[in-house]
Amino acid sequence: MLSLDAPLVAVVWVWMFAKTWRVVWYPESLYWLVGLSVWIIYVVDRLLDSGVVKNSPRSASPRHQFHQRHSKVLWVCVVMAAIACVAILATLPTGLWSHGAMVLVFVVGYFVLVFLQTDAEISVAKNIVAGMAFAYGTAVGVHFWRPDSNLFWFLMSSETLAFGVLCILNITAIDVWASPGRRKGSVDPEDARKILLSLLPLVLFIFCVMYSSKADEYSKPFFLAVGVSAALLYVVDRLGGLMSKNLQRVLGDVVMAVSVVIFFFNYPF
User: Fold this and answer.
1) How far apart are CA 34 and CA 38, in angstroms?
2) What is the value of pTM for the model shown?
């Protein structure tokens, strides 16, 4: 209800990126910056959903009802969190701003697509932008503190791209699971499920397992973690008929965080 799931997932992956890229030092305030930024985006998204699109089936979910009832308090919290983010950014090198500007482009693009989206439509473009925004936003702060930090190579990083695909699958899965059905001009949820959730998670799993066999000892745990998360996402989708939509959605986020266990037991500490 409080939109704490996504920030917690982001913070976990910040730590995993730091270990994978062997970043010796980075400010601990980075965790707060990433966590608060993700929380702001998710809360604003749900406030807009529940406030602007009141007649949408999405607004009937418990999460959106909660944001409708407590919108004033949540907007105050969003402003306070934004002020905290600015305060943290003020203590960090200005070079980080140029890296973060790229993430801002994705975030702005996402909200533009949100406003253009029809009620029950599952927008593949929106989910791709959202997934990559989450992935880049999670990793950019850590990458900045690498001795060989380079914005171009960061954008093309195999770790960031693999995590981005996983995020896209996770967001699409949650959209499909929550969809009430097909409307004119929308993507059929069943078609989206068959294509995105029955095929791509397995493709990502196979890719990550094969890639990890060639990666160094520090990157191998990362790709195993991504692969296992993709496989578990597939399992949650397959077992969807045995659980409620709310439980399925929760498990969709759990598989994004449980990968830290795979990472931990395979990392050469």
Assistant:
1) 6
2) 0.85
φ and ψ at residue 29, rounded to 5 degrees: -65, -15
Structure tokens at 118: 């029809």
- Domain parsing of the chain, residue ranges: 5-266
Angstrom distance (rounded) from CA 218 to CA 200: 25
Of 38, 52, 28, nearest to 4 by C-alpha is 38
165 with 130: CB under 8 angstroms?
no
> Tens place of pLDDT for every residue, the chain, 269 residues?
888 889 999 999 999 999 999 998 999 999 999 999 999 998 988 888 776 545 554 445 777 778 888 888 999 999 999 999 999 988 988 888 777 777 888 888 887 877 776 555 556 778 888 898 899 999 988 988 888 777 777 778 889 999 999 999 998 888 777 765 544 444 455 565 556 667 888 889 999 989 888 888 999 999 999 999 999 998 988 887 788 878 888 888 888 988 899 999 989 88
- Residue identified by tokens 């604003």 is 44
Residue with tokens 């070079």: 95
Q: How far is CA 124 from CA 56, 68, 172, 269, in A?
A: 18, 26, 8, 39
Closest CA to 240 of 158, 179, 160: 179
45's tokens: 């998204």
| Type of residue numbered 161 | L
Q: What is the DSSP string of 131-176?
A: HHHHHHHHHHHHHHTSTT--HHHHHT-HHHHHHHHHHHHHHHHHHH
- Looking up tokens 């989910």 gives 127
How far apart CA 11 and CA 175 sit, in angstroms, is 23
The candidate with the shortest Cα–Cα distance to 263, out of 209, 223, 211, 232, is 223
Cα separation, 253 vs 170, whole angstroms: 8
